[in-house]
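MODEL INPUT / OUTPUT PAIR
PAIR INDEX: 1
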Amino acid sequence: MKLNKMRLTAALLFSSIVLMACSNPFDELADDINNALGLGSPSEETENGQEGSEEEAAEEEDSEVEDETTDEAAVQEEPEQSRETDEDLDPMYQTIDYSHLYGEGEEITIEAGDYTVGDDIMPGRYSVTTTSEYGSYLSIYNDEDRYVAGETLVNEDSGEDVGAYSTELLVYISEGDNLEVRNDDSFTLTPISDEYDDKLPSGMHVGGHDIEAGDYRVTTEETELVGNVETSHAEAYVTSRNAVGNPEEGGRESFVMTIEEGDIVEVIGVPSVNLEKLD
């Protein structure tokens, strides 16, 4: 009897040692059975499932990061695209082109009132003169009511006491422009196709057509008036502006400027400027 108890105790002790040596004997037993049946082990399926979940999570995270990057790039690009679109659509930024008006026009005399180009006056390039002895102002606006040109003119017979105002204004007027005359004096518009090389009268001129493109020294006759010589490509901005005329009022008697092909050159506030083309 005592011997049987000792054998039983020894068997239990041996079993405990075997179980302790095996971290998960039942899992291993299950793995052996599944391998024998070709089903794979539960532990491998669990590990594969975990690896699959981790890969899917990583892919989703990468996709989210990529989407965020794409969205950020779109946000960064959007203002530039919007700005370009605005400039493309805004006529203020479009290059001014008067080529369709070369050699166009029909002589007409206008008095006090408002006149629309295309209805009352033919589009074209004109020399504008007046019958006024004491100065009369003509103003021109485009079809969006933006100022195009204007000048106080006197006739050639006006005395010196009136002042050295312009006797002629050269303008390009397009379909839809409006001319305003606010007094009883009349203005005559005469089509013109003259080109200039050593002098520019008051008004608008196109570089490469009315005057050869290049570098020029610009001077003015002695005068009490102060005006400007400006160049531009579009209504939205002026590419250069130089004050001319009376130096006591800030005018310059001489300066150098570049006239490029297609430039709109405007002489404003003085009867004319002299040009000397530089080599």
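PAIR INDEX: 2
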Amino acid sequence: MLKITVYIFFFFPVWLSAQDITGVWTGYIKTPGSQLEYELAISGSEKDLSGYSLIIYPKDGIENIGIKKAKIKQAKKEIYVEDGELVYDNFTTQPRRSKMFGKLSLMLKDTLMILRGSFDTRSLDFRDSRTYSGEVFLQKTARPLSSKMLVTMEEISLVHNFSFIKTQPVKHANNNNLKKETTGIIVKPPLRPTERKIQKISEINFSSDSLLLSFYDNGTIDGDTVTILLNGKILTEKLGLKASYAGRKSGIDPS
């Protein structure tokens, strides 16, 4: 009699305690009624982690961005995230004062590192009792410089707060003196829009006192940005392009 033994393997998410979780993570938070872009930048060491969270609220075709400090704790099998103070926003309306708490697990899918879990919010305004809960999904990006997080943090001069942007002494061949140079993620100062070569694509004539411009990327979504100038004056700088429209409304000075 021929005997065949069949082995069935079940695969479950595995906690990867040896993995370096510092860096930029991009993804979303999701509730039954909505899904919002969400990013998390984690800095420090395993026993002393900190970071920043970024969330985008789309309204009338405009991305309302808020960045908060984040308390991050790495336990045996989970990562806990707690909102801190707001350090940047471009909100067109007064935001709700709330705090978000997340409980995430780290998983490895092929070569991708994923943080997945749940979140809850608590209002900081006693007149507002609304709370929200839902799902968090984040993936560690291999292109952190294309993230909204680092682009915005560079604009407000906080990008060098991250441990994954490092410096080390380097000796040059023609100079015996040691000089510090940036290694790891290199953040180079970009050219100012007025220093770049401007290519005229089209001319728009208008007579109103305000202008609503909408843009999108009709190719690969790879972190492209646009800067809008009117008569040499910057109206909007580093507007990220996505598959859906992002817009800016600007008042026009007739002078």
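PAIR 2 NOTE: Helices lie at 148-155.
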